[in-house]
Amino acid sequence: MADLVTPLMIAEYGDMRTRTSAVARLGDGTWLHADLLVYCEAQEREGFVEGAPLLAVEVASEASRARDLGAKRDLYAGHGVPCYWVVDLTPDGVRVHVHGLDGGRLVERVAVGMGESVRLTEPFKIEIRPDRLFSGLPPWRGPVEGAYMAHENGPDLPCPQEVFGIDSFIRRWPTGVEKVELENGNPVFYGRWDERDVEIAQRAYPGRVVRLDQRPGVPGTLRILPAASVNQTVPQHVVDGRAPAEYGRV
Question: pLDDT of 31-58, one tens digit each?
């Protein structure tokens, strides 16, 4: 994001503003945490941006990639965000997916990678050349995760009489979270979670449904849903049914 800020600020005109690690309030029940937002000065509030920004940019991590290119993109589209970019770090370098609003949907216009370029006119005139924009990035070091994420889940939480170790603090829900958002009134936590995190979250949100959106131990999202979101005959902590049978409903 630091590499993008200066080119975007140069491209701004009128009352446009750019902010990194920003929150867009798209509705009372939907607050999305973006890696970068371009918006009108009148939308600026203390700690967040009110309404649909002109441009939302996300940097895909292992935990966020599926959501950035799926559910989150659809949320931005549903609230009228006209321009949306996803910056994806791959073994071949940076690839920028450029989306534009078309008929109520954010449609990918172009995906530009290293050695390629594209000239855009919305929300301002700018040329996207990943090899120049991101020339200061270090060599590829494997999948990118949040600053507090680890490649393996940590140990169980210590009992109430014990102090925390660093593993249990930064690798367990909720302190190991990469990002938090509110989607239609439902909290969404990005990270690497398993059944132990589901149990911890269930104690924090009694009576609600705690859902993993991927197999336990795989980076992704953990959501807190109303009890009515699933059949009341099943336990109130579940793993998404798209996972293999052994990870079905626990």
Answer: 999 999 999 999 999 999 999 999 999 9
Task: Give CA separation, 136 vs 23, 27, 93, 132, 133, in Å.
Answer: 26, 37, 12, 9, 8
What distance in Å separates the CA atoms of residue 3 and residue 31, rounded to the nearest whole number? Answer: 25
**Residue 98 is inside which H or E element, if any?**
strand 93-102
**Dihedrals phi, psi of 89, to nearest 5 degrees:** -90, 115
Sequence-distant (6+) residues with CB within 8 A of 118 are 98, 110, 112, 127, 128
Query: What is the rounded radius of gyration, in angstroms, for the C-alpha atoms of the chain?
Result: 19
| Residues 145-177 pLDDT 10s | 444 444 678 888 999 999 999 988 988 999 999
Torsional class of 43: left (φ above 0), alpha (ψ -120 to 50), beta (otherwise): alpha
Judge residue 205's burial from the number of C-beta atoms within 10 Å of its C-beta, 0-12 exposed, 13-18 middle, 19 or more buried: middle
Judged by phi (left if over 0) then psi (alpha if -120 to 50, else beta), residue 96 lies in: beta
Give Cβ neighbours of residue 102 (< 8 Å, ≥ 6 apart): none
